[in-house]
């Protein structure tokens, strides 16, 4: 049975930068949880960042650019690229350890976003792009879906 790496905040863990969760209500989540498929993980806390923490955005590109050292993850006052990379690598290691090929990650996050992220200017502006963890997972062949694509993920997994 395929396991699914899932953003911990989507399962109700209060690990977001603002200290809350973003639980997603979808019947498949409850079904997958019952089946023991879900592996919750938060890359940012795994990278050593506290709860709560200042909001961060990718400045100068997307997650792929951060991996290429061509963009940085920043808060309004600090460069937090290193913990974001550490968290992404920890997510990849966990996926490898558990043989995970699919991930369900929180859209718009600078770590977990898969289709859209904020533009790096803290103005609430979204741009096409993905977060650092998503970029690393996809680079290694893991299929990443957002909480808006649960039906698509359900069609893909065994
Ligand atoms: Fe949720 Fe991912 Fe942000 Fe952690 S890094 S709080 S799992 S969106």
**So how many helices?**
6
- Share of helix, binned: 25-40%
- Rg, nearest Å: 14 Å
* Proportion of residues in extended strands: 15-25%
Structural class of the helices, strands and pairings? alpha/beta
Bound molecules: iron/sulfur cluster
Mean pLDDT across the residues is: 98
Short descriptors:
158 residues, 32% helix, two-stranded antiparallel sheet, alpha/beta, globular, binds iron/sulfur cluster
Walk me through the structure.
This protein is of the alpha/beta class and 158 residues long. It has six helices and eight strands, in the order βαβαβαβαβββαβα. It has helices at residues 27-35, 43-46, 63-67, 81-98, 132-139, 150-156, and strands at 4-7, 38-41, 57-59, 72-74, 102-105, 116-118, 126-128, 143-146. A four-stranded parallel sheet has the order 2-1-5-8, sandwiched between helices. Strands 3-4 form a two-stranded antiparallel sheet. α4 crosses α5. The chain is globular, with a radius of gyration of 14 Å. The chain starts with a strand and ends with a helix. The structure holds iron/sulfur cluster. Iron/sulfur cluster binds next to α2.
Topology:
Layout lengths: L3 E4 L19 H9 L2 E4 L1 H4 L10 E3 L3 H5 L4 E3 L6 H18 L3 E4 L10 E3 L7 E3 L3 H8 L3 E4 L3 H7 L2
Parallel strand pairs: 1-2, 1-5, 5-8
Antiparallel strand pairs: 3-4, 6-7
Bound molecules: iron/sulfur cluster.
Could you provide a short overview of the structure?
This protein has six helices and eight strands. The chain is α/β, with parallel strands linked by helices and 158 residues long.
């Amino acid at each position: 049975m395929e396991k699914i790496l899932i953003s911990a905040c989507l399962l109700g863990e209060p690990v977001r930068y603002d200290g809350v969760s973003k639980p997603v209500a979808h019947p498949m989540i409850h079904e997958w949880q019952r089946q023991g498929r879900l592996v919750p993980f938060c890359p940012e806390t795994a990278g050593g960042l506290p709860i709560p923490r200042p909001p961060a955005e990718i400045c100068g590109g997307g997650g792929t650019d951060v991996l290429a050292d061509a963009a940085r993850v920043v808060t309004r006052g600090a460069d937090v690229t290193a913990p974001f990379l550490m968290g992404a690598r920890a997510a990849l290691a966990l996926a490898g350890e558990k043989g995970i090929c699919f991930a369900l990650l929180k859209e718009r996050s600078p770590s977990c976003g898969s289709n859209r992220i904020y533009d790096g200017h803290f103005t609430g502006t979204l741009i096409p792009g993905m977060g650092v963890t998503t970029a690393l997972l996809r680079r290694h062949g893991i299929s990443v879906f957002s909480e808006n694509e649960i039906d698509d993920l359900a069609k893909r997994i065994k």
